[in-house]
Amino acid sequence: MTVLTGRHRLARKGVLALVAAMLLLAAMTLMAQPSTAAGAEAAPSPASGVGAAAWTPTVSPLFTASSQPAEYVFRNQTDAQRSYYLNNCPLRYLCISVGQGDGLHTVFQLYYCDGRTLGNFIDAGGATNHQTGGVRAFFVSNDGNTKGWIPADNHPYKFNPYPYDILWPCDHV
């Protein structure tokens, strides 16, 4: 039996063979693509190490090498590295960590009391205040309201930085 398709005549077996070949091609293409389980995230490529940061947290100003003592920023830290920095915050420093949105963290070691503008402090964070004399660090919103503070007791604390826009590393209020 033949099927008429416009002006061309095709054998029924030929049409079935063509459809089967197209389905097989589609199935092979899908099998060749990497897949993840529903709701799971794909693992980063071993060649790249880790995925690109979703955002880059900043503290401004940050008094670096030209200042003595200097302040430091450590980016792309794992959970273990972040915990190390928070549990070993240097004497007279305020150590702040915040997520980057890619599973990694940025850690800041701040020494000076100047008010700081926080940029991209979006994800949950942690802080250890190892300053002396009971000096507290304050998180403040743009409207000047104090949103939280970290006591100078050299213990790590968790915080949710939104809507903290300003950080006063030393008593300000």
TrEMBL record:
Which keywords describe this protein according to UniProt?
Answer: Signal
Q: Which residues form the signal peptide?
A: 1-32
Q: Does the keyword Signal apply?
A: yes
Q: What's the protein called, per UniProt?
A: ABC-type transport system substrate-binding protein
Species of origin: Streptomyces pseudovenezuelae
